[in-house]
From TrEMBL:
GO CC terms: plasma membrane
Residues included from the entire protein: 538 to 806 of 940
Assigned keywords, A-Z: ATP-binding, Cell membrane, Coiled coil, Kinase, Membrane, Nucleotide-binding, Phosphoprotein, Transferase, Transmembrane, Transmembrane helix, Two-component regulatory system
Origin: domain of life: Bacteria
Protein's name in the database: histidine kinase
GO MF terms held by the record: ATP binding; phosphorelay sensor kinase activity
Chain ranges of the Histidine kinase domain: 41-256
Signal peptide segment: none
Subcellular location: Cell membrane
């Protein structure tokens, strides 16, 4: 978004030249867009759980309830409270990472082991989806903050589950090359329209659409994944076909003994 205007310069009534001023408003425009996305996320994602928390709490205050009903309401309050915490944590996490205040605790870890653990933790909670681990994941050593890698995997798998409301397979694969460890998560869900792909990793960006209206989220998960991976010298990409499914793939630098030494030294300075 540009603004250009020209100003003619005169000296003793004679035209000396014209100055053109170019103003780049792209950043302002992006900031405005981010603010309005933030406002709509906050108004929807904070208000919805808050109103059910307040609503159920009021009901419990007003009436004598049977213990089963009471328990059901408390469960809802608890669930919605968790959702709020999750949203606020994601937001603060990202804020901290972007301001460079995040301190990563990187060490030599095996990506395959971490990924298997995440899959095994999440799988039992998803009865409508089949988890497929392609081949046996080969061990792949990387220099990473384990908790953060768990966060990336958890986000990608929960998106795969969330955005395939009819169930299906969720396939996890990992390939090692000399330079990289490549991990991908594929689902057979809604897929993503091509025009949305470039914006997908931006903060608060959510794809609109009838089938997605009921699927809750903040539009922060992928932005968090991207930032974590970049802070590990890695990257993330997506391929998708609407109605067929999506594949999110990330790469992290593979580690051999010598590299490990370099990383450790440069990280401690
Ligand atoms: P959230 O899931 O909280 O909305 P994300 O940043 O994780 O936020 O994802 C941003 C958007 O990208 C989602 O709203 C969704 O529309 C789209 N998306 C992410 N993962 C998938 C997926 N596996 N299949 C289809 N759409 C996806």
């Amino acid at each position: 978004v540009y603004e250009v205007y020209g100003e003619q310069l005169f000296s003793d009534g004679e035209l000396q030249g014209t100055i053109f001023v170019h103003r780049d408003h792209t950043r302002n425009y992006e900031l405005d867009k981010m603010k309005s996305d933030l406002v709509s996320t906050v108004s929807h994602e904070l208000r919805t759980p808050l109103s059910s928390i307040l609503g159920f709490a009021e009901l419990m205050l007003m009436k004598e309830l049977k213990p089963e009903k009471q328990r059901k309401y408390i469960e809802t309050i608890h669930k919605e409270g968790n959702r709020l915490t999750h949203l606020i944590n994601d937001f603060l996490d990202l804020q901290r990472m972007e301001s460079g205040k995040e301190s990563y605790e990187k060490e030599r870890v095996d990506a395959a082991e971490i990924i298997m653990n995440v899959v095994h933790t999440m799988e039992p909670g998803q009865p409508n989806h089949s988890f497929i681990i392609e081949d046996k994941l080969q061990s792949g050593k990387i220099f990473a903050d384990e908790d953060k890698l768990v966060q990336v995997m958890t986000n990608l798998i929960s998106n795969a589950v969330k955005f395939s409301p009819n169930g299906g397979n969720i396939t996890i694969s990992m390939q090692n090359s000399q330079d990289n460890v490549m991990v991908s998560v594929t689902d057979q869900g809604l897929g993503i329209p091509e025009k949305e792909l470039p914006k997908l990793f931006s903060k608060f960006h959510r794809v609109e659409g009838e089938k997605r209206q009921k699927i809750r989220g903040t539009g922060l998960g992928l932005a968090v994944c991207k930032k974590i991976l970049e802070d590990h010298n890695g990257r993330i990409m997506v391929t998708s076909e609407e109605g067929k499914g999506s594949t999110f793939t990330f790469y992290l630098p593979a580690l051999d003994g010598e590299e490990l030494l370099q990383y450790t030294q440069s990280d401690s300075t």
